[in-house]
Amino acid sequence: MRTQRSLTILVLIVLFASIMPANSGASSTQVGDLILRNGPWHVGDEIEFSILVHNSDAESINSFLQIEIDGDYNNGTLIEIESGNSVELKSLFLTEESGTVLVNWTVYDVSENITEAFSGITEVIISGQQSLFADIYSLDYDYEDGYSINWGANLSSGNSRLISTQIYFLTSQEQILASDIEMSLEPGLHTTNTILGIAPNEAYKVQIILIPIEWTASAIATDSQNIESEMTGLTLDIISGPSPKYPTIGDIVTIEVSIGNNGVLDTAPGKIIAVDGQKRILGEFNSPTVSSGSEEIVELNLNEWMSTSTTTLELIWIMDEYITKTNLEVISSNLNEVNEESNISINWLNVIIGFGIGLAIIFSVRIISAKNQTEHKESKTYSKRNQKEEVKEEQKKRGVDCPSCSKQLQLPIHYSGQVKCPSCLNQFSTKSETNQEESADIELDEELTASSDDDVVGCPKCDQVLRVPYEKRPAKARCPACKCIFNALAI
Questions:
Q1: Distance between CA atoms of residues 102 and 64, nearest Å
Q2: How far is residue 80 CA from its own chain's centroid?
Q3: Is the CA virtual torsion 17, 23, 26, 32 positive or negative?
Q4: In the chain, what are the domains?
Q5: Among 339, 337, 273, 333, residue whose Cα is nearest residue 306
Q6: Which of 128, 211, 265, 329 is the most buried (most CB within 10 A)?
């Protein structure tokens, strides 16, 4: 192919020379030696041959430089040389084999005919193709800048080379170019860091390709590394709290939590939200960045406690579209102070004294009854029966729960009025069972309802939270705290 191209050039030169005026006797002379540029050379490189030619004749001449290696020819550009001028003739040759090769070069003058002005032979050492390798050392993720890649290019000994560095995000459908940089490489290892930005959706791999510019490498230089596009391994744990252990309304409650990141990507700053059983937001707190494989401690100060009974405190860590949750059962109180142990204490001395007084009263009643037994038998019998019925009626009791500490108090069945809890000293009013039955009949006429958009629903009469499956609503529900029966509705 190269020979055919050279012959074509010669034919064109002949035709061009046929329309030029004849300059018989005009001839070029060699001024310097043949020069080879851009060395050292490797297979695939283009060698530039150059020689300086002088025209010492009175007429201008046309000359060109021809190169021949192993039977392949290449002719340089035909150049006109004015009388008395010197011109550099050039010819390019593409190397295809390695080793020491002989170069036959010739300078031709073109007039009526193509004549050889002068020629020579030189040796050229051609090495094998240079090798180029690409390696990805690490793939890092920053929430603001996205992905960055630390990579290296290794060029074998020889010439400096120009390359194009192309880095892609790979999805199952396409290659997405993230970076394209041209750079000049010296032989040896060159490392650098390139910011790629946020990965496209469904990107699963990063690939780097090094492309030679105007030279040929022995093999394609490429490398790739898998990436993770989603956050994984996020944890939210309660370390300590609540403090105080039994908070009352208006208290500042402190809880310490740990947010952990067991994934390969660093998290961004986010928020931690505290919500009680009635879905009331008790606090919203900023969460710090959590590096891959580490954890951070965050102290949450809930400025105003709102519950008066046991409630489920839900803590939610939100970081963009990623959500992590944990729950904590908190026993609330409406007292300023709640003992960590049971508040019930028994004064045994008072119990013994009371028991003794009771026995004395019983014995006294029996003695009096025995003394009067012989008098007025029928009247006494009637009175005794009447007395027993009254005592029996008075001994009937009913249980009433203290609304503050949930302690159950025993009261006469017909008693209505103020009651003071002996445990927490809270005063509250109560009605007899007859009044309660009448109130219950009235309340039955007013049907209570509660609704939510999930399985958790709050009692409409107290702070208690119940679980009523969303898919089974509407459904009847009974509050375990206040015994209220209501309809659970879906939103």
A1: 20
A2: 70
A3: negative
A4: 2-127 (2.60.40.10), 132-226 (2.60.40.10), 234-330 (2.60.40.10), 447-490 (2.60.260)
A5: 333
A6: 265
Q: How far apart are CA 15 and CA 35, in angstroms?
A: 30
Instruction: Give the torsion sign (CA, 327, 332, 336, 340).
Output: negative
Q: Are 87 and 102 in contact (CB under 8 A)?
A: no
Residues 46-89 pLDDT 10s: 888 999 999 888 888 899 999 998 888 989 889 988 888 989 99
Write the pLDDT tens digit of every residue in 89-144.
999 888 888 888 899 999 998 877 788 888 899 999 888 888 999 999 988 887 67
Q: Is the dihedral of CA 6, 11, 15, 17 positive or negative?
A: positive
Q: Cα torsion at 178, 184, 187, 188 (round to 10°)?
A: -40
Q: What is the pLDDT of residues 242-295, one digit of tens each?
A: 999 899 888 899 999 999 988 767 777 889 999 988 888 888 999 998 888 889
Distance CA 85, CA 54 (A): 6
Q: In terms of Cα–Cα distance, which of 54, 64, 108, 122 is closest to 89? A: 64
**Residues counted in the chain:** 491
What single-letter DSSP state applies at residue 377?
Answer: H
**DSSP 8-state symbol, 279:** -
